[in-house]
Structure formats: C-alpha cells, structure tokens
Amino acid sequence: MKMFEWDQDEGVELNIPSINGNGLDVLDVHATDNALRLARAEELARDATAGIEKLREIAGIMASQASDGASVSFSLNEFDEKSRELIGEVLGRGEVSGHMSEPQPLNIQESIFPGLWRVKNLSRSDEPEVVIIADVPLVLRLPASETVDANMVIPEDAKDTMNALPVLAEIRDRALSYQSNRENHIINFTLLPMSQQDMDVLRDTLGAGHIDLVSTGYGACRVCSTRWPHVWSVQYFNSMDKIILDTLEIGDIPAVVRASKEDFHDSAERILEIIEAYL
What is the SS3 assignment for 264? Predict the structure, then answer.
C-alpha cells in the first residue's frame, strides 16, 4: 500500500499532476535529443561568446564546489538572447524535475550536469531562468508557512489502527530533534506491519507539503514534502509504475535528489569537454 496516494496521484509518469496540481515536466534525457541540442548550440556559438565564457566560469566554480558549499546563482538577464539560448541548449534537462508552491511558485529543473540547476519563477513568466550551482537549490530549504503544520498535532483517537499513533510520535520526535548535517532517519513502510487505516491516518495527519520532485537517475523516485517540517515522502517505482519501496525520511532534503561532491567535479569536466568539442 502507498504511504501517500493522493487523489491526484495517477502513477509516476513524468507528466502526471503533482500533489500541488501542477504537471511535472517530461525530462529530455535521450541521447538523440542531447545531440540535437548540442548541434543547435554549435550553430549559435559564433554569436554567443558571452554565453561560452559564462559556461567556462560555471565549470571553474563547479570544479572546486563541495556538496555542502554555498549556493552560487546566475541570472540569465545579463546575457543577450543568443547567449541565453546557447546556455539553455547546453544545460538541457537532467534527471530531477519538479515544482515548489511557496513562498513563490517555482519550476525546478536539474540540467544534464548534476549540481547545476535551472529555476523558473512561474509567477514571472517574462523573466529568464536562474542558473544555480548547489547540491539542491537553496530555495528548497527555505521554510514554508501556509503549508506547514509547525505544531505537528497527533490525533488523540485513531479507531481501528494498530501502529499509526506510535509511528507518528516517532516521526514528531525525530523532526523536533532534527539538526543539520546529520543523516536522515528513514522509516520503511514496506517492512512495517501497517494496516490501511494506519496509512490513512498517517497520510491525513502529515498532509501534502509544498515541494514535489521526481528523479529518474536509478529507476523512478518521487520525493514530496509533507506539512510536518523536515518530513519527506520518498517512493521508488519499478518499470510498471508500481511502488517497490515506500518510505518517510526525517531530516534534510533526501539524498536521491541532491548532487554529491563527485557530481560537481564530473560536471565541470563535462562542460569543458562540450565547449572544446562543440563551441
């Protein structure tokens, strides 16, 4: 059974509606599409020298970036149209994609280079994307207000349940004692003896939060924030869109959607290789 089977949840295809009612982008990760994008970037290169220099600068920063390093961001407003287009073609769409509803509605898209993100403010459609170097965009760690239940109230009475109330008590204790830089605490519902009533109480109590992400790095994985601070639903799916691992993580944004130190180094090398080969 699913921990979070929202009314809007129709599976894990990447064009499904999110828990916030927004559609998730279909990721452009096929080799043929990547080749076409690089061919378009090659055509733009002569008239987009500023964009090429910015890519070199980004590669230099990423080469020395740590997974817990400070976030670095660039607005594409400072570039001419061809340079913006070239940067967009080179960055492409990577394995992690999703939405954030507050404090402002954002589209979050990892580039084909892990650790390099494209963030679009959906309330300002006329503004270009912001490019961010980070394990995840810092905005995903900002506290929400409207969707967060800071009191984390546990129901006093949960009829016909076995383990819902003690599990909620464990979740609350872990959330209240959360400290940054500690490993996330994981609760695996695939292994726990939980009834459908237990799962319903957990779902209704924790509620849907403001962040909804999908990763396709190693199979499909959906990461959703809940209304309780530092509590995340993390679900892994097989090729038939069936859940094979259903968990909650209490702590930082789950590692499955974060870039590692090695990712930054590898991405820096790949950017420079593309510049030398195509631009």
Answer: helix
Cis peptide before 114 (omega within 30 of 0): no
Compute the distance between CA of residue 270 and CA of residue 262 in angstroms, rounded to an integer: 12
At 108-147, the pLDDT tens digits run 999 999 999 999 999 887 888 899 999 999 999 988 888 8
Residue (of 161, 202, 165, 174) closest to 3 by Cα position = 202
Q: Are the C-beta atoms of residues 250 and 230 closer than 8 Å to each other?
A: yes
d(CA 232, CA 123): 26
Per DSSP, the chain holds a count of helices (H) and strands (E) of 6, 10
Neighbour tally for 32: CB within 10 Å: 7
Cβ atoms of 236 and 244 closer than 8 Å: yes
pLDDT digits (tens, 9 = 90+) for 239-261: 888 888 999 999 999 999 999 99
Distance between CA atoms of residues 54 and 50, nearest Å: 6
Q: CA nearest 225: which of 161, 155, 172, 147?
A: 147
Residues 210-246: tens digit of each pLDDT: 999 999 877 789 999 999 999 999 999 888 888 889 9
CA distances from 30 to 36, 104, 129, 142, 203 (A): 10, 31, 22, 33, 35
29-36 long-range Cβ contacts below 8 angstroms, 24+ apart:
29/93, 29/94, 29/95, 29/112, 29/216, 33/92, 34/92, 34/112
Kind plus residue range of the DSSP H or E element containing 262? helix 261-278
- Edge-to-edge strands, sheet with 208-215: 72-75, 130-133, 116-121, 106-110, 96-100, 208-215, 220-226, 231-237, 243-250, 185-188
Contacts (Cβ under 8 Å, ≥6 apart) of 173: none
Distance CA 64, CA 264 (A): 8
Longest dimension (CA), the chain: 69
